[in-house]
Design goal:
The protein is built from four helices and six strands. It is globular. With 157 residues, it is of the alpha+beta class.
C-alpha cells in the first residue's frame, strides 16, 4: 500500500488504515545480478500506477534504484556503480559502444567527465528506464504505446 504525501511530490509505504492508502502492485523479474558491484538489473512491470510506485517499493525493501536520493541513500555511489550510471545515461558514448570498456573498473578520464552534459553521478538522474509506456490519449481516448530501444541490455556482461 502507498499513500501520496500531502503537499509533496513524494509517496510512502502505508498501512491499510491510513487515509488515502492505495494498493500498489508490481511484477518483478531479475535479469542480471553483478556481485562485484552488488547491483541488479530488474524488469519491473507495474500493475497499478501509483506515484513513484517502483521507486518507493524498491527503496522500502532496502534496494533503492541506482542514483535515487529521494527514496534511498543511493547518491553516494562506489566507482563501479558511478560508471554504470554514466553508461546507462549515455548508451551512445564511446565507453558504452566499446565492449572491452564495459564496467566494472572502467573510469572516465577527468577530461571526458568535463565534456559530459549530465553532471556527476549523484545528480537528479536515476537508473530507471521504461521499455514501453501505454496510455489513453485524453484528447481522443485512443490507445497509445511508446516503445524504446533495448540498447541498455548490451551493457550487461
Amino acid at each position: 500500500l502507498l499513500v501520496k504525501l500531502p503537499n509533496q511530490a513524494k509517496a510512502s509505504v502505508a498501512r491499510s488504515q491510513d487515509p488515502g492508502a492505495k494498493l500498489a502492485q508490481t511484477r518483478m523479474k531479475l535479469v542480471h545480478y553483478d556481485a562485484k558491484l552488488d547491483c541488479s538489473l530488474l524488469e519491473l512491470h507495474p500493475i497499478t500506477g501509483r506515484m513513484h510506485q517502483l521507486r518507493v517499493q524498491a527503496a522500502s525493501r532496502g534496494h533503492c534504484i541506482l542514483g535515487d536520493s529521494l527514496y534511498g541513500n543511493c547518491s553516494r555511489l562506489s566507482d563501479g556503480r558511478a560508471d554504470l550510471l554514466r553508461l546507462l545515461r549515455e548508451p551512445d558514448s564511446p565507453e558504452a559502444r566499446n565492449p572491452s570498456s564495459k564496467i566494472p573498473g572502467n573510469q572516465l578520464t577527468e577530461d571526458q567527465q568535463s565534456k559530459t552534459s549530465y553532471g556527476s553521478p549523484s545528480s537528479d538522474w536515476i537508473a530507471l528506464r521504461a521499455e514501453s509506456l501505454a496510455f489513453f490519449d485524453p484528447r481522443n481516448a485512443q490507445a497509445v504505446t511508446v516503445t524504446a530501444e533495448k540498447r541498455w541490455a548490451e551493457l550487461i556482461p
